[in-house]
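Is zinc ion placement plausible here? Inputs below.
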Amino acid sequence: MSRTVMRYVAHTIRPVPDLRVEARAFCLASGCSQESGLRDDPDEAQDWALRHTGRTGHDLFRRTFSDHARVTRAG
Ligand SMILES: [Zn+2]
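Reply from A.M.:
I modeled the complex. Tokens:
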């Protein structure tokens, strides 16, 4: 007969600053479906949005960001 022992260990999760944050910007103007594409530098997605507004006048964007996180055992 087997027995399962569940042990709960406290962990913490933190961002990993050495790994880049990825970003993407989507234009929300009606009829426009342009987007920056996934950029591994958030500044590039921001620059794309600024250029897009300059070309089109579209001024509302949805932005997504993703970072990396590491879980470590607490204590
Ligand atoms: Zn647009």
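Short version: The chain has one domain: 11-73.
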